[in-house]
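To close the chapter, one final illustration. This time we ask the reader to focus less on the individual chains and more on the assembly as a whole: which components sit near each other, and how the overall shape emerges from the parts.
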Amino acid sequence: MTLILEAVVFGVLTGGVYALMASGLTLIFGVMRIINVGHGALVILGAYLSYALLSSGAHVDPFVSLLITMPAMFILGVVLQLAFIRPLKEDREALSVLVTYAVALGIEGLLGFIFTNNFVQLNAWYQTASFAIFGFHIAYVYVFGFALCVAILVAMFLMLYRTPFGAAIRATMLNRTAAQLVGVNVDRVSAVAFGIGVATAAAGGVVFGMTNSFDPGSHYDLISRLLTIIVLGGLGSLRGAIIGAVVMLIVEDLASVVVSPVWASFAFFVILVVVLVVRPQGLYGIRVRERI
Amino acid sequence: MSMLEVASLSKQFGGVTAVDACSLSLEQGSITGLIGPNGSGKTTVFNLITGFLPKDSGDVLFNGQSIANLGPDRVYALGIGRTFQLARIFPRLTALENMLVPMRRQGLRGLFAHGHRHDERTRAMDMLATMDIAHVAGLLGGALSYGQRKLLELAAVMMVQPQLVLLDEPAGGVNPALVERISGHIRMLNAQGVSFLLVEHNMPFVMGLCNDIVVLHRGSVLASGTPAEIRGNAAVLEAYLGS
Amino acid sequence: MTRLVTSTPVKLGALAVVIVLALLLPVFASDPATTNIAVFVAMYVGLATAWNIMGGYTGYISLGHAAFFGFGAYALGLILAHLGIAGGYEPFLFVPVAGVLTAVLAVGIGWVALRTRAATFVIVTIAMMFMVQLLAENLVGLTGGGAGLSFPVPPWTGDFYNNPFYYAMLLMALVALGISWWIRRSKFGLGLLAIRDDEDKALAVGVPAHAYKLVAFIVSAALVGMIGAVYGYYVTYIYPQFAVDPLIGLSMVLMAFFGGLGTLWGPVIGAVILEYIQLNFAYNFGASQLYLVFYAAVFLVVIRLMPRGIVPSVSGLITRLSSRQAVGPSDAAGSAQDTHVLAEPSP
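The assembled structure is written out below.
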């Protein structure tokens, strides 16, 4: 029983970081209708940036490093959008997949070149500190990481629902043409939204990097999970991304305990298959139907 | 037995009842107009009949056979064609290829059938000629003007000789000269045995062309009869203009 | 002049010349390094062409075809192991069996994946690929898991060793091209292209879209599976992450895009050019991770310059040039708008 409770608790705690990463990904899809297959690589990039700062003479704490990496990655996101996404005219959805995949490969290569392919982890000085609860131990980093993810998600929701710019983003997500007609600069919204998505990837990278060991090739596994989560939640739905992430991670951790760790990640995809058979548009997605 | 019979058809979207126990019937050889104020459910009825939307309750019978649960391709195979409110053709195929796409009861035999068979090509070109658009046969659908697309759409639907064609605003978005031509094409095809059910807002077009009119209001049939009867119907006038 | 170049007898003649050259390649370039390149080029020509049958003709972009590639490899490996087939020519006879098994897998995957459209479909295929990879890793009793699976070693030696594999890959490529050509000229192919343009409209004119998409998916998958089987036999030892390799799955997509999605020859041209570049990069930079960076950079540049791919861009250029010759500069647009009496003001 303790094991099951532990699995659920960890599912929620790790679900938080996946929720954050998936939110960025689904936001990008909602605003630009593109699948950023490079999102996993951007998360890993964020992790490595924090790793570099941590390993440097200044020994910057991973959480503190966000003050540098988040703005930096925001700018990177805007640049990427302007350079590679905006110029796509025909076949945007399909080409953007290839373009972002190319970006991901480029990042993987660069990181491999600079940091080599050895696995690393963001080890803060309090890495091993933990507390006991309900008969098992939780390391503080999990809780801090979870708190950070929640904080950023709350900030994102506040921005989306309480600020004029957030309204512009939501308008663009709902109906790009209509938004343009009421004066929203959809190009600027797209660029900024992409930047926000990448900035959240930086934050996700820190939390992910503190609780997992990673190497440049880790983005494959990561992006496959993130994509599965946003499809489960419904493409473009932030609520769906968050719930989907938590559900997926809880089920995975439960499967690890109840069945075996080996099949845990398989359970991940089985949920996706089941949901798609029953409800192809995901939990909160809308049925995509051409206007008839 | 009427050719098409809609029996107490209903459809809801969330809290909105788009089609409310709608019942109507069409006879073979007729040209029937389906009119009504905006939002009365006309296009929804079309989508229900042609299998683009699943019904909530009721039935649609074509020559006595229930078609309410069939997909659009099966409905077309049975002999009901349709056009769309904003003319839809295949933009990356040529006009001629657009004419060769429609298929009836072919399924996987299509793997072994040549896409550009000589007899089909000839028939397609003839069809395009009767619509006076034979000269654009080699152009991509995306390069055609809107009027040409409308004519192409109708011509393509006719390729497999459907019994009944549902036209969604055939006179919409085109100049008066073309409206006249379209009216003439419909009359000509009707003389060859094709029945039509058309949704339209252009009253002179409808009154001049149709021998039967059905008025839809808030998802159900308000009145039906000849153009003269409908013109004189006070309830219809009230539905359109409000009280 | 352009009309001469694009006429049918000239095209057929050129094709015949290319095929003859391809068949004779091991004769005048018999060193293993060159024939190895030839094996991989032929492999990717086949893969890109097979992928194009689904992705190019229907517009449903599958990024998970690596699943079929790896599955085909494992299927053949397991069949050979269970039947105790020794290395030599015999294993090639079982490649079609691997293809049939891959087709069965495709029915299962396709049935789920094709319930979705557009962006969701892409993602589902990626997820499916990872599932297959996970199965390969975790069904240790069956596949050997992370330790890999071995194929029987053929008895050939020296310069000759690569040749049977080259001809096998070439045969697969020709089969894929033949099927692609057949589909393209059939009513079925026309239906697929209609689905790509407007699936609902296609349904409205009687195209049985669901069945057609599934058939295209299965055919595409089976071909890729057979090519994967030959690959497995060629490399003699396969591991889950290198048989079900996302990079291979991505490469075939890239090549089809690069050459021209939905065209017959686009994937061939794209495969030849990109595979040549990829192998060059691997030889020159393979040791370092910069190889990935350069590959990505080349790809991004190409997409910026020729987003529609080579074949459509080049043929568009030819059309513009020839219409300019025939009519004059004022009508140089590829498709002349009809300014007849039918032109009316837009609403």
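Chain A has one domain: 2-278. The first strand of chain A starts at residue 130 and ends at 133. With these observations in hand, you are ready for the problems at the end of the chapter.
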